[in-house]
Specification:
This protein has 69 residues and is mainly α. The chain is 87% helix and 0% strand. The longest helix is centred in the C-terminal third of the chain and has 31 residues. The chain starts with a helix and ends with a helix.
Length: 69
Amino acid sequence: MEGYSFLIGVTLIILAGIISGVGSSFEQQRMNFETETYLERTKKHNISFWFFILGMIFVVASVLLFLIR
């Protein structure tokens, strides 16, 4: 059970990174900033933030399940 929880958590954290553009270069980030509206940026950052929070919850839950077992 903790294996699935850990996998879901890591997947959500990776998705948060992809959505926020962690792997892009400075030029790509600058161009994205210039071409997006404020509402699009805010929506993208909110989705990324909640994916990261949910991912951390799943990872912590999997560690607790592992320690309790």
